Amino acid sequence: MIDRYARPEMRAIWAPENKLQQWFEVELAACQAWANQGKIPQADVNAIKANAVIDVDRMEAIEAETHHDVVAFTRMLSESLGDERKWVHYGLTSTDVVDTAQALQLKAANELLLEDLKTLRATVAQQAKRYKATVMMGRTHGIQAEPMSFGLKLARWVAELDRDIERFKQVQAEMAVGELSGAVGTFANIPPQVEADVCALLGLTPAVISSQVLPRDLHANYLSTLALIATSLENFATEIRGLQRTELHEVAEPFSVGQKGSSAMPHKHNPIGAENITGLARVIRGHMMTAFEDVALWHERDISHSSAERIILPDTTELLDYMLTRFNRIIANLNIDEARMKANIEASGGLVFSQQVLLTLVDTGLSREEAYDHVQQLAQQAMDTGSKFKDLVADDTWIKARLTAEQISAAFDVQRHLKYVDEIFARVGIV
Asked: Locate the Adenylosuccinate lyase C-terminal domain: which residues (predicted)?
């Protein structure tokens, strides 16, 4: 991952030094579990804990010769130990260490991501409440439909984030799993109790069954959930991009003093943050596909998944952490042009109230078809001539014979579109 899209907190979790530290934590926990079984003297475990030195450069030098990272790691550790070195990696195979340590890294990464999600949810909910009564155009197919509230649009995002959070919590628990079952997963050289003790020490749950590696459908499901969260952000970002277009200009990303929108056109204020979110969501969905392809390994184990996961797990968690944090800043500082929202409603000359005119006529006893056809004719006349639909309705003899002036006026009341907003907010859980 390039530094541009990685925050220090998440980058530290995937740093080589921390990866090796987590490998050591697994090795140390395994020694302690063996000591609990009476296999290893507690004094030797204490010596390993006190004396082991992690030296990234030295490990890389050994790996250049062995072409095996875990062998290089255990030999690097042994160089700083005495006779107790014989217990390092006792009964284990490489993936016992790598997969379990990776679970620790993911556990730390997931704590950050969950906090990011909760923070964004709170920010969107706060803005939803702030703009609960701010009337704007609702659009379908990109065309003006009927008025709504901007807060209601944001409330939909809150509900989507709630679903994202629940899905994330599920995979967060699924990924907090370790395995130390030895070669091909038979526990032939390491008893299940050692695995249980190690996982307890590390705050993980033992895998129900493993084949030297954790089953990769777990990782595929995890990446799928992260990709769906990224896609939610893209969904929200796309809306901001659409509403910031010059022709609408109802919302806009914050634009700081000294910021430049274009190298050529000084007037430009572009939705670069939302576009950034959109592009990175595409990357994460690509990683999701790689995770799905990692599920099918040969027999009990191969390492075709390993090279891919060195990229997709750090990069996806780093990208999503960045995206959630950046989008939170965008939402918290979003510029809302309420006057432009009102003007865009009025620009239709009342056309967006056609359904209420239709329903008011139906309430008088007319058939829906007859009422629809007449209202549509007036709407088409307004669009063809540039006349205001509201004036055409108010002056139409056929309508005036059926509706009072008060009924016509009520049909064009924008506030009626907000009458259930409080109830909808309560259903979403925005209080």
From this structure: 349-429
219 is an active site residue: no
Give dist(CA 104, CA 418) in Å, integer: 48
Residue found by looking up tokens 């409330």 in the block: 155
Judge whether 26 and 97 are in contact, CB under 8 Å: yes
Domains annotated for the chain, with CATH where assigned, are 93-340 (1.20.200.10), 351-411 (1.10.40.30)
Note whether 420 and 406 are within 8 A (CB): no
- Give the DSSP H or E segment for 376: helix 368-385
> What gap in Å lies between CA 165 and CA 125, rounded to an integer?
14
Q: How far is CA 188 from the centre of its chain?
A: 41
3-state secondary structure of 145: strand
How does DSSP classify residue 266? T
Q: Which of 141, 256, 267, 299 is catalytic?
A: 141
Q: Identify which of 66, 65, 64, 62 has the alpha carbon closest to the alpha carbon of residue 77.
A: 62
Gap between the Cα atoms of 193 and 311, Å rounded: 33
Distance CA 423, CA 431 (A): 11
For tokens 């009924």, what's the residue? Answer: 407
Neighbour count for residue 74 (Cβ, 10 Å): 20
Active site residue 210: no
CB atoms within 10 A of CB 424: 17
Q: What is the pLDDT of residues 238-274, one digit of tens each?
A: 999 999 999 999 999 988 777 877 778 888 888 999 9
Tell me the three state secondary structure of residue 380: helix
DSSP 414-426: GGGGGTTHHHHHH
Please write the tens of the pLDDT for every residue from 395-405: 999 999 999 99
Residue 175 in contact with residue 217, Cβ under 8 Å? no
Rounded-to-integer distance, Cα 93 and Cα 14, Å: 22
Helix axes 192-202, 94-130, angle to 10 degrees: 40
Contact in structure between 227 and 288 (CB atoms under 8 Å): yes
Nearest to 358 by CA among 374, 347, 381: 374
b/e 327-338 (16+ beta carbons within 10 angstroms → b): bbebbeebebbe
pLDDT digits (tens, 9 = 90+) for 269-298: 889 999 999 999 999 999 999 999 999 999
Tell me what the pLDDT averaged over the chain comes to. 96
pLDDT at residue 265 in the model: 84
